[in-house]
Amino acid sequence: MLCRLVYLGRAVGKEVALKVNYGKNKGFTLVELIIVIAIMAVLVAIITPSFMKYVERAREARDRANVDAVYSAFQLGAIEYSTPT
Q1: What is the DSSP code (8-state) at residue 9?
Q2: Bridge partner residues of 22 (DSSP)
Q3: How many CB atoms are closer than 10 A to CB 11?
Q4: How far is CA 29 from the centre of its chain?
Q5: pTM
Q6: 3-class secondary structure, 84
Q7: DSSP 3-state helix, strand, coil percentages of the chain (rounded to 5)?
């Protein structure tokens, strides 16, 4: 395993050095990954009800627009076919 000491100076009469690891110890530990996944799951659980509310509003707006289009088509048909030619 590669490592080196980085000199940080003096603290209370002692020399302070930081051991910096190089090599195989790159990446995250399993515990860190599990914590991140748990935090993301909580956030998704919080956001999902709000998102579903907006999806339902969009469906209702689409349905209203479809009903308006059908109503307009019936009105146009009634006007077109009710006048004598």
Answers
A1: E
A2: 2
A3: 8
A4: 24
A5: 0.48
A6: coil
A7: 60, 20, 15
Quote the CA–CA distance of 17 and 23 in Å, as a whole number. Answer: 19
- Domain residues of the chain, as ranges? 2-82
Residue 85 in tokens: 């030619």
Q: Which two tokens stand for residue 39?
A: 């935090």
Contact 2, 20 (CB under 8 A): no
Reading the block at residue 63, the tokens are: 């349905």
> CA–CA distance from 62 to each of 7, 67, 85 (Å)?
66, 9, 37
* pLDDT digits 0-9 by tens, 10-62: 555 555 556 555 556 678 899 999 999 999 999 999 999 999 999 999 999 99
